[in-house]
Amino acid sequence: MRLDPMTSRTRNQANQGVHPLLNLGGRHRHAALTFVTVPTDSYSLPAPPPPRRGGRRPQDSPPRTPTPTNEPTVALLFTGQIAFSYHHTAGPSNPRHPRPSLSATPTLYSMPSGSISQSMPDVAPPSSVVPEQPELMWHHAFGFTEDFKQGFPIPKGTVVVSSSHQHAEPSPSPSFVASFATDSGEHSAHGGDADNDGSLERHRLFGQSRFATSLSNAAPVYLHVDLVTSLIGCSWKYGFETGLHGCCKPSYTPHSSASITVHMPINFVKPDILVPELPRITPPHDARPSLLIRSPSVLILINHCGSCDHFVSTWFPLAFLQCSVLSFSMKTTIACFFLLLILVPLLGTSVDKKVYIVYFGQHVNGEKALHEIEKFHLSYLHSVKESEEDARSSLLYSYKHSINGFAAKLTPDEVSKLSEKEEVLSVFPSHGMYSGHTSRSWEFVGLDEEDGYSSRKLKNGGENLALRAKYGKDVIIGVMDSGVWPESPSFSDQGMDPIPKSWRGICQEGVAFNSSNCNRKIIGARYYVKGFEAEYGTVNPTEDFLSPRDADGHGTHTASTAAGRQVSDAAALGGFAKGTASGGAPLARLSIYKACWAIPNEPKADGNTCFNSDMLAALDDAIADGVDIISVSIGTDEPLSFENDVIGLAALEASKRNILVVCSAGNSGPDPGTLSNPAPWIITVGASSVDRAFSASVKLRNGLSLQGPSITPNKLKKMYPLVYAGDVVDPGVARNLTGQCFPGSLDPTKVKGKIVVCMRGDGLRVAKGLEVKRAGGVGFVLANDEFYGDDMQYDPHFLPATTLSYDDGIKILEYIYSTKNPMAKINAGKTKLNYKPAPFMAEFTSRGPNVVDPYILKPDITAPGHNILAAWSEASSPTKLPLDHRSVKYNLESGTSMACPHISGAAALLKAIHPHWSVAAIKSALMTTAAITNNLGNPITDSYGYDANPFQFGSGHFQPTKAVDPGLIYDATYHDYLLYLCAAGPDALVELSSTFKCPANPPSTLTLNYPSFAIPNLNTPVTVTRTVTNIGRPKSTYLFFVEPPLGVVVEATPSILRFKRIGEKLSFNITVYPRNDLSGENSEYGFGWYSWDDGLYHVRSPMAVYLP
């Protein structure tokens, strides 16, 4: 998951994943086509095999990508008039829409893969006469009539595309209709004359917005494309930002031939949300065939007017084929279909093969040597391949440490065969759904930047934390990300001791990276690209380095935040945030694992992509190399179920070896239920602010001065005319797009020499400033809309600029319209320390509840992730925009990606002091000592000023100086996590270990010894059992305190814990039940806290309870 700090929208977007069947981006690798022969009277495709043991996926939300257990199907369903014969009848008639005289039921044409020689069924239309019912004329909306959407059971994972064509009455230009039906109804986007007052752009925006909303909400989606020809030929393009593009080039003359080309690259970038509704075709006589489509599938509906006397060429890029339908006769239709069948095998095996991960479960220690594990994997691969050579060439990775499994190029048939083998727990596709979740922060949490360590004492009078931890000396942090810029001063090894002899990693050489780029600080570096290249081809040297070198900046930033050396006088562009930059554990070692790559043909500002097969290989090596902590600022836009989450699977094995995995929660806020990396053995980190701000004021001629964030050092020395962008747009810009300063939207004749106020709206924030500069503006004010409120980002603009809150944006607009000659000037930005209130929760940080397991409260904790200064790749600009050629050594970035390495660095300090603590103990110490108040002593708020809650910050804002000595810990073992999985329900994981068997009646997941809990539906009393271990004072007595959620009673038994020694464990029960007088009134989640307090230690845990 990524947050581009230059992007206005931090919500999850609809174009950030890759559909396993229809990824047509990059090098246009396409879905395999499989045709299955069926009798015309049955319309039934072979049913999929029954679910195999371990092959069922949990019913989490939103639906996950189904594991392929059979061949995908591409069914070409010719419907509507294509199966009819028409002639003009007596009486009034529109020659463009003649009445039907013959009928036929819809006909499904499909054949098995490799069996194209089989004969086609007889498709001659029956001779029964249809009554003259003009309403049966199925025109452009055929695919979306209610009758159509009620009868065909189409499984999730299926994409349904329909197209149709009709004549139009003479009009000055063609029109385009794209319809999509969701669970909330039908929506259409109509494109008309581009010069007709911008109607095309207005409708494009409407369709784009509604369609993107449908995708992000995981709603069922239908697509329908209509082309309506006109008398005047033209050429224009119409596209959805979400990936559906249509290109219509019609040329029509009455009573002569016309040509229309439909270009439809189906490139949906969500893996599993295209879940069509249950459609029904209602042809004449109400024939209702039963059609079973195997999943995942592509169903193409071709619906054209049966009387049109012209040429139509429909190009489906998923087969690189052209199909010409002349006069829509049945004869030519069959000929066209046979052409498809003949050309499909010519696509080659590269189209058929996709990368899949085959998962066996857990390795048995000591059972096999590493070479034997790979041999074992090859034997399974060979069992479905034609030769051993083919098996070896198909193998991408053999995972030997993280999981027992391998990644290989497989055909759908091979996937099906492997899935049926008893030892295989699951097979799931490799995908690029993952991406990066994209100073003063350490001082803010108690570690002074000036010397790297705080002069503050621990609560119990103990020694300074960082000094006591020896600055994290020799703790090894593995960073899986986009690589590293090794020349940064943050990675200097000056004064560091030799590399520990226990280290088993390597320094892998590549483009612009050799062994000398590793040192005693960066002790290891590797890169993983096989999964990426299997999808996109060879890495483009102009876009990325085929080596551990970072071309993006994201990986360099996160690595230096966790363990960068102290660098004095570090600053962002323009000298902002100048001071000593330091990581949390400056003497810890770093090992770099590059698994994220530039998206081909996309700007860097769009982020990067990380394939799960590559990440799993990286995590596999990190475990084998001997790291202590793995920092992963990567995730998906939405959580994955446990058996499909490669980070979670590898982290589980890492926990067995006492390797802590820390992950970012994601940048899909402020919507609830959006966080990723939800596994309970992972520390999941949200993002909050620090007490440093950068502001610039815009002073109006009436004396009013408005403050807003800015990291632009430029200023205006005098007053300039002030205008609203909506009043200075180019005449051709659609009315609903005015004011947003989109590229090319401003009129230079009206902008030159002025300060322009732009609305935040959609689009890249810095790009808006670039548009003002292009049009000749001298200054730029970005005003928040109501959606963003007071949430403002710091951007390195190209001209004097500042950002205003929604309320201040209203004030400046009121001023503009209150005077004939509004004037203003923008002052230079300044750094402000000790900003209050701080911290507050970032608007973009992903929220709970945990949709994978709602009983585990996530995120776990929050850390600084808002405008964090850290090292940067000099191959990337501070904004990553193509027009930005500036280079910086340090950069300010925001995102949970920046918060994650703060926890990784803090964990390294704890690991150095307590090397024998379990990963659960470190996690517990950080969580139970976290703060829930800001520097004003009030509850932490969100970016709008309202009280935040544990679904945003987990246990609170981390305090490493207190976590080193927490008093009590909630410990858990690998065995506990396996028992948890028994209750969690993923059938594919219940037999992870050959030495562990799930009990017949496993306990609830609520019984996992976790430092927090959530109850998603409190109808009756619920009892939660927890065990704490004393690591504070030998003899101590703890009292139970509680602040229950509204409408809930919380009681503990016992309510007093008396410890006699260090290491002693005591258990207690917490019973939660609804209050009778308030039950049913809340109907939402309520939040509270319970704690154990002995006067010295305050061990606090959050709770979330939903009252139905």
TrEMBL record:
Positions with biased composition (Polar residues): 7-16, 102-120
Any one Gene Ontology BP term: proteolysis
Pfam families: fn3_6, Inhibitor_I9, PA, Peptidase_S8
An example Gene Ontology molecular-function term: serine-type endopeptidase activity
Domain Subtilisin-like protease fibronectin type-III per the UniProt entry, residue ranges: 1008-1105
Domain PA: 720-811
PANTHER family tied to this protein: PROPROTEIN CONVERTASE SUBTILISIN/KEXIN
Family: Belongs to the peptidase S8 family.
Protein name, UniProt field: Subtilase family protein isoform 2
Species for this entry: Hibiscus syriacus (Rose of Sharon)
